Amino acid sequence: MMQVTSATSSAQAANAATSAATTKTTAPTLDYNAFLQLLLAQMKNQDPTSPTDSTQWVSQLATFSSVEQQVQANAKLDSLLTSSNLQDAEALVGHTLTSADGQTTGVVASVSVTSSGSTANLVNGGTIAITSGITVS
User: Fold this and answer.
1) To bridge 89 with a disulfide, which of 14, 111, 117, 130 should be the other Cys (CB 3.0-4.6 Å)?
2) Which residues constitute the domain of residue 132?
3) Can you tell me the distance from the alpha carbon of 13 to that of 117, in angstroms, rounded to the nearest whole number?
4) Residue 85 has what pLDDT?
């Protein structure tokens, strides 16, 4: 028998804590598209007789590149997390699960993975949310 602790529930708790902290501070943020719009507006509206200093221009391009790389890295991390969740779900098929409260038990026929979490669909028609505390045997 193996006890399962959910990494996704820990991540969700961390995200909730981060969201709560962000809500309290409400620091202004700038997303990728807003940054691009500001950069283009600056380029369109600069004075042709006094163009932007080349050092500032290079700095802005470096910042733009950094933002673009961060957006791509986040997309890849999301993809890896999804892949990991699918592999974890696949490993449960055919095993017996017992819910954290011990009230629901059954053999896993399939697993549904959504953005809100994973749910094991049992052979007997029941379901068990895959969260911290379930037992796999």
Assistant:
1) 111
2) 58-137
3) 13
4) 80
Neighbours of 35 (CB within 10 A): 15
Sheet holding 127-129, edge to edge: 2-3, 135-136, 96-98, 105-114, 117-122, 127-129
User: What is the DSSP-derived secondary structure letter of residue 51?
Assistant: P
Average pLDDT over residues 79-92: 85
The secondary element (H helix, E strand) that includes residue 106 is strand 105-114
* 108 within domain boundaries: yes
How many domains does the chain fold into? 1
pLDDT per residue as tens digits for the range 26-48: 555 667 777 778 877 877 777 76
- For residue 93, give both structure tokens: 């098929």
Quick one: which of 116, 118, 96 has its CA closest to 107?
96
Q: Are strands 135-136 and 127-129 parallel, antiparallel or unpaired?
A: unpaired
Tens of pLDDT along 89-137? Answer: 888 889 898 888 888 888 999 888 877 778 888 999 888 888 888 888 8
For residue 8, tell me if it sits in a domain. Answer: no
